Amino acid sequence: MVERGRLLADRTDLRPRDRDHLRALIADWTLVADLAFADLVLWVPTWNQTGFTAVAQIRPATGPTAVPDDLVGRFVAKGRRSELDRAYASGKPVRRTAVATETASGGRPGTGKRKAADEAIPVSFQGRVIGVVARHAAARDGRRGALEEAYLRSADDLIDMIATGQFPLPEGLATTDAPPRVGDGLIRLDQKGTVTVASPNAISAFHRLGLAADLVGANLTATATRLSRTPGLVDEAVALVAGGRSPGSAQVENDDATVTLRSIPLRSGGEYLGALVLVRDVTDLRRQEKALLTKDSTIREIHHRVKNNLQTVAALLRLQARRIDEPAGRAALAEAVRRVGAIAVVHETLSQQEGEEADFDEVADRVIGLTRELAVDARVERVGSAGLLPTDVVTPLAMVIAELLSNAVQHGFPDSTRKPRVSLQLARNGRRLTVEVADNGAGLPPDFDPGVGNGLGLKIVKTLVTEELSGAVSWEPRRPAGTRVVIDVLLA
Ligand SMILES: Nc1ncnc2c1ncn2[C@@H]1O[C@H](COP(=O)(O)OP(=O)(O)OP(=O)(O)O)[C@@H](O)[C@H]1O
Ligand SMILES: [Mg+2]
């Protein structure tokens, strides 16, 4: 839970460093609340030292709340809550005893609602007490289980660390996404790195990684490194974090699962007591992330680069064409520029599509645009519509159309007395797709035979239509003048 408003800055005269320490505590204290099954309230002395203001509050995710009221912003005067005063003055945790309960809440009628804390924990930082955490556990009946006892012991260890200025850890736990919650999974290690306690979710996470043996009693470093994807090649981070002695986080990953570990070394004074390791099964989360990545940014980025590369190739060819004086060579290079350009156009359109289909009309219009660049005074227009086509049809068909349109504007008008008029007709009838490119030019040469001849254009057209599209293509003269090319494709 985050400090609300500017309470820390406005109502206290704590140094900026002190405030940072308190904010770090608030960022990580979910762990303490969960382990203690208790609500925590952070009280800080007001600037004039007349009492305390509550600046933050957290409820346990592991049990019911004992503090249903929102206390943030409340003020208590000195003397009203003796446990806060005593913890603040002494720098030592103050636990509520039966007698203290009576004097704190029972003694004064009407103040019963403002219940004394079960424990008041001084927050120390750089040798000074800068605040007090009040711990309130909900009343409960029944005996505690072994796991609960272990949680409470761990909470006490962390609380001692708060009182001695060793918690929050300087690194912070809540560095990534959500704050760590005990419910995700918890392991307690002894000084040697052996698991002494493991919560059910922690055990499940390790089972998912493939652990068949008991987790309790195992050495966590050995277990985690063995389950990691690269056995033999010890992952330093995993070994370090699973050892418990150094705080930090690491990811244990193999083909079956991904589990994150975060260790919090527990110290009492200078003595190392062992560690808490938070365990979180993030397998599903990572899979979702990966799926999203592939679908979105990565693919988009690749498409973008391919398109840029194609444009670079076209620009290079164009430059080269300018340096060639010989007309035939120059024309050949200009053709190459057009072909690369057509591929770039198709590629760009396809990369902007979401699914397996692309709007072919849009592709066709862009190819027509390229042809107009080639012959400025030609009138080229699209008639009809092909609608959505599978992407594996779109690419070859666009290349075919680019060749046919280019032939129509180039070869139809040798004397250039007539204005070139070219139409691209698209028709869809169920699975059947018909494409027709017609011009009003001079017509095919008398010796024209699509089966022979060494023009690259016709080769491209025939290969793509018959091999890639399993369709048919034919050239025929048009009345009164010109050429018509008809393509027939049966869509899958
Ligand atoms: N629409 C058309 N009108 C008249 N002649 C055409 C038409 N389409 C093709 N031809 C003839 O067919 C020949 C072969 O065409 P093809 O596209 O294979 O080669 P090209 O256009 O000459 O050269 P490129 O390899 O650059 O395309 C052309 O040279 C031309 O004589
Ligand atoms: Mg050609």
Helices and strands in order:
Elements: H1 7-11, H2 16-28, H3 30-36, E1 38-45, E2 51-58, E3 75-77, H4 82-90, E4 94-95, H5 98-106, E5 119-125, E6 128-137, H6 146-163, E7 186-189, E8 195-198, H7 200-208, H8 220-227, H9 236-243, E9 248-253, E10 258-268, E11 271-281, H10 283-323, H11 327-351, E12 357-359, H12 360-374, E13 379-384, E14 388-390, H13 391-411, E15 421-429, E16 432-439, H14 456-468, E17 472-477, E18 483-490
Parallel strand pairs: 13-15
Antiparallel strand pairs: 1-2, 1-6, 2-3, 4-5, 5-6, 7-8, 7-11, 9-10, 10-11, 12-14, 15-16, 16-18, 17-18
Short structural description:
The protein is α+β, with helices and mostly antiparallel strands and 492 residues long. Helix content is 41%, strand content 24%.
